[in-house]
Design brief:
Blueprint lengths: L6 H4 L4 H8 L4 E4 L5 H17 L7 E4 L4 H7 L6 E5 L1 H12 L7 E5 L9 H17 L6
Parallel strand pairs: 1-2, 3-4
């Protein structure tokens, strides 16, 4: 399940996809609706790499749609799932994964927040730089 933030690094070709492919496992990836065109371009690059590496055609598949995520988690051939997104969506999929006749591993990153603590001394001595660094990395944290 693709992340909505940082689509090039954490989405289509993110760590879960790469790890599964490196282990020789087929991947069914559900693209995030927020950046379908980016997901499509990255998927094409993955498919080309699979071809160049001599892996079987169909090792990587990308799908689109809302309810399809639940259908994937419920499908008996799916043996594990990874998800990045909202707490509500992640918990719904987790509950489906655990309610199967044989529960499957479900790895989720859900609605994390990156707190920033700036102590008074740091604010006084380098407040401008802290502000610039913080603004420069908006939406890049998980």
């Amino acid at each position: 399940f693709g992340a909505s933030n940082f689509p090039l690094a954490f989405s289509t070709a993110g760590g879960d996809t790469v790890a599964a492919l490196a282990a020789g496992c087929p991947v069914v990836f559900k693209a995030h609706s927020g950046h379908m065109a980016t997901a499509e371009l990255v998927a094409e690059a993955i498919e080309k790499a699979i071809e160049v590496c001599g892996m079987p055609k169909g090792t990587f598949n990308m799908i689109f749609g809302g309810r399809i995520g639940a259908n994937l988690v419920e499908h008996p051939l799916i043996q594990a799932a990874g998800f990045t997104g909202s707490l509500e969506g992640g918990m719904a999929l987790y509950n489906l994964a655990q309610s199967r006749p044989q529960p499957i591993p479900f790895f989720a990153e859900m609605s994390s927040v990156n707190p920033v603590v700036v102590l008074p001394e740091a604010l006084h001595s380098r407040g401008e730089q802290i502000a610039q660094d913080t603004v420069a990395s908006f939406n890049m944290g998980c």
